[in-house]
Design a protein that fits this description.
Layout lengths: L20 H13 L22 E3 L2 H13 L4 E8 L5 E8 L4 H20 L9 H20 L2 E3 L3 E6 L2 H13 L5 E5 L2 E7 L22
Antiparallel strand pairs: 1-3, 2-3, 4-5, 5-7, 6-7
Helix pairs in contact: 1-2, 1-3, 1-4, 4-5
């Protein structure tokens, strides 16, 4: 699936403009949730991709499609490549690839969006309920959880909803985002990952999760 839009020159700036930030931040979290180079350590979101290298690889179609939709709305040209393998246990990998001419600009945009979104969510600055900045902070909180529930996957048991995150920094963002949305989240470290859990009866306060999420909705947030 090719996108023919061109990346806005604003995307190459070190700061993502407010109108584009929610979509860019959600895209950054989607990519970061499956980026194994970030495991349990703070690091830049991702180095610039090599030729033919995917921006992100998912084991399901839903997060790949969501990332494509978000990036297209931001003016990025992308395509999706599906690869299958295995013998007795078949598997497929959904790869989202950004056009070579836009890889550097897209990488810079997502890095900036991650920094700005993380700073906004972790900030302890009090904001009035009617403040535009508070509204955007809540939108970013929803974007973070929507991305994590799609990309990292989730498990819902009788009493808890859990997501398995590779990176402690992303987990901290999710905990803060949950609090802003009125949900208490807890973090448990396991070998090679971090598990973020919320009470199952509070999960409806989080953004729509599959299959309720309408991936093809024209609205990006």
């Amino acid at each position: 699936m090719d996108r023919t839009a061109t990346l806005d020159h604003a995307a190459t700036r070190a700061v993502v403009l407010a109108g584009a930030l929610p979509a860019a931040f959600e895209s950054a979290v989607l990519a970061a949730c499956v980026d194994t180079s970030r495991t349990l350590r703070p690091a830049p979101l991702r180095a610039e991709s090599r030729i033919g290298e995917a921006l992100a690889e998912f084991d399901r179609e839903d997060p790949a499609e969501r990332l494509e939709i978000l990036l297209a709305g931001l003016g990025c040209m992308t395509r999706r490549d599906t690869r299958s393998g295995g013998e007795r246990r078949r598997y497929s990998v959904e790869r989202v690839i950004v056009h070579e001419s836009q890889r550097h600009a897209t990488s810079r945009m997502l890095d900036a969006a991650w920094r700005q979104g993380r700073q906004a969510l972790l900030s302890s600055e009090p904001l009035g309920a009617s403040s535009p900045r508070n509204t955007q902070r809540l939108t970013l909180a929803q974007a973070a959880w929507r991305a994590a529930l799609l990309a990292a996957g989730h498990r819902r048991r009788r009493h808890i909803l859990s997501v398995m995150i590779r990176d402690q920094e992303i987990a901290a963002v999710l905990v803060r985002a949950a609090r802003l949305l009125g949900v208490t989240a807890e973090v448990t470290r396991r070998s090679g990952c971090v598990v973020v859990t919320v009470p199952a009866d509070a999960a409806d306060l989080l953004p729509a999760t599959p299959p309720r999420l309408r991936l093809r909705d024209s609205a990006l947030v």
